[in-house]
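The passage that follows is intended for readers who have already worked through the single-chain material. We present the inputs for a multi-component assembly, then the predicted structure in tokenized form, and finally a short commentary. You are encouraged to pause after the input and sketch how you expect the pieces to fit together before reading on.
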Amino acid sequence: MRIESDIILGKVKRLVSDGKADRVFAWKKGNFCYDTEPSLFTDNYVGFTYDDFCAANLCKFMINESKKDGKTLVLIKPCDSKGLALLEKEHRINRERIYALGVPCAGKIDMDKIRENGVKGVIGIEEEKENVSCNGDENLIIKTLYGDKIIPKKSVLYDKCLSCTDKEHVGCDEVFMPELSEDTYDGKKFEGVKKIENMPSDERFSFWRSQLSKCIRCNACRNVCPVCSCVKCIFDNDNSGIASKANSDDFEENLYHIIRAFHVCGRCVDCGECSRVCPEKIPLHLLNRKYIKDIKELYGYEKEPALLTFTKSDAEPSVIYERGEKNV
Amino acid sequence: MYKIAYSEIYNLFDRIKDVITLFLPAKNDGAVSFSKYESGTRYEADALNTVRSAKDFFFPQTQNIAEFKISGKSIEILQNTEETGKFAVFGVRACDEKSFGILDRVFLSEPSDPYYNEKREKAVIITAACNYPEETCFCTAFGIDPSEPRGDVSTWVSEDFLYWKANTEKGEELTNKIADIFERCNDGEIISIKNNIKTAAEKLPFVSLNLDYWRNTGEKEIFASEKWESVYKGCLGCGTCTFVCPTCQCYDVRDFDSGKSVRKFRCWDSCMYSDFTKMAHGNPRKSQKERFRQRFMHKLKYFPENNGGIFSCVGCGRCLKSCPQSLNIIKVARSVAADD
Amino acid sequence: MQINEKDKSNRPNENPVPSDENFTPLIVAFCCNWCSYAGADLAGSGRLSYPAEVKIIRVPCSCRVNPTFILRAFQKGADGVILAGCHPGDCHYSTGNYFTRRRMTLLFSMLDYMGIEKERTRVEWISAAEGAKFASTMNEFAEKINSLGKCRRLGDLRCV
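Having made your guess, compare it with the prediction:
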């Protein structure tokens, strides 16, 4: 089933006219069919859209929006809702000034994956009208300047959608048409982490070395992260002694990425935005997910912030040395 | 003009490599970047743009300047800039090649920048025509013809051949050293390739991008426009657009205390960052809106004002593809100029 | 990547080489003021020897040490970093070392995941009364680091 942008817009308009909110934070159509941008709608809804390309997580914008008077209505996808809940828990947003409208999600499309199929000059993307089956095997017709191409939608979903285990909203004021959400989980959430864990240490080292050496320190992974909400980041603070605008040495690449991942350790909501926004396609979620996996294995839970609590019988750090030979 | 069978292209690279260090677009862990060519490197012919632009060759992300060693009461100053040998870059697109001209205006006008100049002089730029321009390309808006790339050597590719034409002395010199690998041909052979590219370029969505507003409107008026308030909304304040941009040229000079010495280096900076042009009183641009405005004002207004109307954008489309939130120069140029 | 390849491209990617004769490791020991630092004192007054290359940094609690400290020590040339605190349950501030325990477990696991030798980092609980344990732990750790050789995978080449 297709999620219709107009139906969502209708709902939004109703909520605003009912006085639930004064403005709307949502996505706006771009120049192409795929480049939707986060946008604030105050008096009209020109360009409003909600489609398969609205992958950006809007919840972090609420830190600023909720400082304003009046209420902001924000569209929240299932993965975003976890970030919003965390921001609320950590008192980074004034929840009273936000009306969170949960919207259904059937997975978002990654243009880079489409381009990897050798597609150039995309001018339109449509879902194939015929042969639509209900088990999610829809095809996309990619219209380009150089001819059309048909690609199965499942094969071009964002990695973050493929590892999205549930399409349930948390902490929204209202969830609209949740029945339209589709399961996009490929059942392999921790495969990537396991694969690296099973490499010999030298291989792990060279894997991360070659990935992280691509880093250009654009800080997109940090800025987009709903959990990274420090007012002033240690890497922007000249007085910290470790602020660096560029990775002059590979130590700085390691430092930045270890500390970035560590700072969200136990709080990461695994929305996958860090990997989505990386211009160099560094699989940053593999760092965050390693912590998630460790926390699950060592402390047995996923949701609580692991570093803000403890039990007297926690494992000793030496547990790391005792891991099997494969990790040596 | 010369040509070589396209199937022989790796022989060509091997020959060039024997003469001069060669860089070309290759895939590294999923992202295409200019990489040093060694036997076995696979040339990414289909990639129109590398993730980072070719400006890296002349204006690298970090550049060592000097090292200060302190012993007792004396300070020793060491030059720790790396020597660069001669090198060639293959597969530079017309837009990136044009961007060098824009950077030259900044780095080579007096006082000229020795680090930039040194590398610029040692480079042989081998450009490649874009057979299949992408929807994000808008180089034609800045008067660039993707079918006529310049540089020291221009190349075109048909199904069977790679055509090679030297444009400058540096290009001639390289060509002469490897000329035996080519066969001669006349210029007429590439007319149809050029025409195909021109036809494709005419169909691109931004072919009619109109920048008259930016040319004709006063600086202060644009600066004060209310449109900025809405266009920047989605901006994260990351530096992606500035770092992938072939014409962004801002840098910071920083010191690194290694415990034994102080190393002065220069690195890219981004106007999107909170500590950009930070002075004793802080950053003059306090909000993201101001920082965002600075970037586009610089590209579309300040730079042309100071450089005879030349925009500091070449339409490579990298920011259109890389921006995490899909903001980009086209949206800004149009929205700020829009009447409503 | 490019023409001006950064210093980092020179980083050796091979196995850590066994130390040569002249190698003296640099070891940073973060010691809790209330126990391990006093333990080091006791080791000193008890004339128990531990390697001179262990440089002690006194911290108010093992919990004061955040991962940046550990990484910074490596950046500036440490070959091994050890963190010594009160035994779990004995923290001067009641619970500090419990947090340390989780934090360091996860950090060490991450370093290991990135292919950095995990033996270069350690946490030990040493009380003020355990001068002998302090000395033996440091001796043992220094020996381990000596056998691992220079830390090549995490240091900053500019600081060498």
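Commentary: Chain C touches chain A at residues 1, 6-8, 11, 13, 15, 67-68, 71-72, 74-75, 88-89, 95, 98-99, 101-119, 122-123, 153-158 (CB under 8 Å). Chain C is about 35% helix and 15% strand. How closely did your sketch match?
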